[in-house]
Known about the structure:
By secondary structure, the protein is mostly helical. It has a domain at 18-84. 43% of the residues lie in helices and 0% in strands. It has helices at residues 6-16, 26-29, 36-45, 64-77, 93-96. Helix 3 (36-45) crosses helix 4 (64-77).
Amino acid sequence: MAIVSDEQVIKVLRQYNPWWRNPSAIKDESKPQKQLAYYEALKMIKHKTLRRFAVLSGARRVGKTTIMYQMIDNLIDEGISPKNILYVSFDNPIIKLVNV
Length: 100
């Protein structure tokens, strides 16, 4: 038996990904000033021949989520479908309880 339902997970994912419904919603989260780490992470994500994940790690409150939002904003501006962009925070208790 599942600890959390699929509906609960989908509700959380919709909250984390408001650009699925309104692509301009990311503008509210994305700050205009970009750190060096933003450019490095974007370079990894956009590499043409390497298919991989980019992991942003660091102490709490250093700007990892802001960098993610800025990258999402950039991808949407470049024409990537917002429905193809997924953001998940694994700190969420519902997400932590998902049994795959």
